[in-house]
Amino acid sequence: MNLVSPIDFEHELNTEQWGVVRDGDGPCLVLAGAGSGKTRTITYRVAYLLSKGVIPSRILLLTFTNKAAKQMLERVESLLGFHPQGLWSGTFHSIANRLLRHYAPKIGFTQNFTILDQEDSRSLIKSCIKEMQLDTSARRFPSPSSVQDLISYSRNANRPIREVVEKRLHNFYDLIPVLERLADVYAMKKHEADVMDFDDLLLHLRDLLLNHPETAQHLSHQFQYILVDEYQDTNIVQADIVRLLAQVHRNVLIVGDDAQSIYSFRAAEIKNILRFPELFPGTRTFRLTTNYRSSPEILHVANASITHNVHQFEKHLQAHCPSFEKPRLAPALSAAKEADYIVSQVRDHHRRGEPLREMAVLFRAAFHSQALEFELIKRNIPYEYRGGMKFFERAHIKDVVSFLRLVSNPKDTASWMRVLEMLPGVGATTAQKIIMQVQGIGKLEEICERTFVIDRRAQSGWNLFVGALRHILSGNQLPSDMIRATVAHFYEDYAQGEYPDFRDRLDDLEQFAVFAEGYKETQIFLDEIALTETFQANEQRGDQDRMVLSTIHQAKGLEWNTVFLIHLAQDKFPHPRALEEEEGLEEERRLFYVATTRARRRLYYTYPMMGNGESTLFQQPSLFLEEIPSQFLEASRLPPSLSTGANWQNEDPVIVLDDLGERPSSPPRKSKGSFLRSVEEL
Fold first, then answer.
1. Residue 385 backbone class (left: φ over 0; alpha: ψ -120 to 50; beta: rest)
2. Which of 57, 308, 425, 644 has its CB 3.0 to 4.6 Å from that of 137, i.e. a possible disulfide?
C-alpha cells in the first residue's frame, strides 16, 4: 500500500528527470549538467520510492553539506505532506558518526568517543610535537596547521606521507622521517584518548566495513536504496564506503557532473565518477542536459569549451531560457584598465535597474582581484568577497606591511610585536622583552649592530630577522623592492612552514609588490593602505546591496544575472602550477566551464594585454578563449596580430579598440596620483 497520496511525477518533471525517477533501480549514473535540476530530481526520486512503499529507514541519502541534506528533506516533506521519519540523510561525516556511535567498540573505540574539531586537532598535533621533543626553533618547521593539512590529504587521497611531502611541501623533504613518525604519534594519541578527527570518521567507517564483513553485510542489507549527490567531489575513501554499503541490493544512484569536478586539491577523485560503470557492471546512465539557468548563447560557449576534454562523459547542454546576447570578450591594456572597464559596466547595468547582488566577478586565483578591489574602493561600490578575506585584510599582507612600517617608524611597537612573533622560538613574552630593549634606538641600522639579551631558543630567530632586515635596508627603499626583499629573505620561508596554501599567499605578495611599483615613497604607500583598511572597516554591513567577488571554486553551485570572468591571460588561467599536475589542464578547463555556467544572461570575458608591473610585454589570451569559435563571442575581439589562435584569424577588417576594449571616441584620459583620489572620498 502506498504511503502517500499520488503525485503526478511525470507532469511535474521533464522527460529526462522523470526517466531517472521512474527507472532509477539498480546501479545508476545520473550525469546532471549545470542548471539541469539535479536537486529536484533527487528529491522526487526519494518521494517516488516512498510512494511505492519503501520504508524510510531503508533509504540512505548522502550529500556534501548539511544545508543540502536539510533542503532535500524539506522538499520531500513538502511533496509528501509529512516528515519521512527514519530516513537516513546527511553528509558522509554525519552518517559515519551515527554508524560509528553504534559500532565503535568493534574498532577499539567506545561509543562515547569525542570528535575533534579543527582547532582541537591542531592542539593535539602541537602537543605531539612537544612530546617528541622536536626542535622547531633551530630551523623552520611546518606549523600544526600545515602538518594537519599534510596528514589529512595523505589519508583522504590514500597516498603516503612521503609522496605528499614531495608533491606539496617539498621544502621539508629532509623532514619526511620526522613527519611520518609525527603522523603515527598523532594517530596513537587519538586512539589512547578515545577521540577522532573528521577524517577518522570516514576512515574508521571504511575500516569497519572492510574488516568486519558481517557488519558490512548487515548495513548493506539495511540500506535498500542509496542516493549520492555531487559524486564527482568524492574522494577514494567516500567512494569505497558507497561501494561497500551497496554490495547487497546494488540500488545505488549517484548524481554528479564530471565536467564540474574541480576539487582535486582537497583529494576529490574524478576517476570515481568516470569509472563508476566499471565498478558496478550493468550501470544505467542517464543524462540531464536541459539547462534552466543560462541563455543559449552562454551554453554555446560552455559546450564548445568542455568538448576539448578527453577524460569525460560527453554531454551537450540545451537551453530552456530564451535567447539573449552573446558573451563578450573585452581585452584591456592592463589590469588597472581591466578593472576600469568592469566597474563601468557594473555601474551601467546598475543604472539600468540591475541589483549589485545580481552581478559577480569570478577569478582563478585570489590575487587576480587586487586591481579590481582598488577600483571598487575608489568608486565607492560595495562588494563582498566570497571564500576569504579582502586583499588588505589577509594575514600575509599585514605581516609584510609590518616590516615596511618598521622601516618607516622603528618605534611602532605593534609592528614590532607582529614581526617578532613570526620568528622561530619567539613568543609573546620574549617579543615583549626584545621590544623593551630596542625602544629608544631610533635607527634600524643601529639595532642590527647591537647585541641584546635574548633567550637561547629565540636567538636563531632573531639572527634570521636581523639578516633579513639588513637585506631590506641595503636596497633602494622603494616600497616594491622592500616587499620583494622581505619575501625573499624572510617571509617565503615563514609562509612555507606556516600555511598549507603558501603558494597562493606568495602569489598575493608578488601582486602586492606589483601594485607598490606605482609608489616612490614608503610613507605615502603606507598611508594609502591605512586609509583603504579604514574605508573597508567602515563599510555598511547588513542588507546593503553588494556585488560579489569570488574565486571560481567558491562560486560553484551559485548563479548571477551578470558574470565577469577576469584575468583570462595565458600563464594566469590555466594556472601554471595546475599544469604540473597529472591531467591538470583538464581540471583547469572544467574550472572555466564552471565559471561560464554561473551566468544567466550576461557574460564577460576580460584579460589584461600587458604583463604585471612595468612590463611592456603583451600577454596572450588564455588557451580557453582561443578554443572558443569566434562566432560564439561578440565582435569586440583582439586584432589577429595579438593572438596565436587560428579561431581569431579572419578576413574581416580589424576592429581598433582602446585599452578598455571599446572603439575609441576621444583620447584616453590619464589619471595621476593615488588610487584614492582624496580623503574626502572616504
1. beta
2. 425
Catalytic residue check, 74: no
Task: Please say if 443 is a catalytic residue.
Answer: no
Q: Shortest CA distance to 218 belongs to which of 303, 314, 103, 300? A: 103
Least confident range of 184-188, 200-204, 499-503: 499-503
**Given this model, what pLDDT does residue 536 score?**
53
The answer to whether 53 is a known ligand-binding residue is no
Hey, is 227 helix, strand or coil? Answer: strand
Q: Residue 305, annotated ligand binder?
A: no
Omega of the bond prior to 574 within 30 degrees of 0, cis?
yes
Active site residue 230: yes
Is this prediction's pTM over 0.90? Answer: no
Instruction: Judge whether 559 counts as a catalytic residue.
Output: no
DSSP class of residue 363 equals: E
282 is in an annotated binding site: no
**Cell numbers for 345:** 559596466
The answer to whether 415 touches 406, Cβ cutoff 8 Å, is: yes
| Residue 35 DSSP code | T
Cβ-contact 57, 325 below 8 angstroms: no
Active-site choice (394, 598, 602, 637): 598
Annotated ligand binding at 33? The verdict is yes
Catalytic residue of the set 16, 38, 58, 606: 38
Q: pLDDT tens for residues 536-561?
A: 555 545 557 899 999 999 999 999 99
Quick one: how far is CA 533 from the chain centroid? 24
Q: What share of the chain is helix, strand, coil (3-state, %, to 5)?
A: 55, 10, 35
Flag whether 187 is marked binding: no
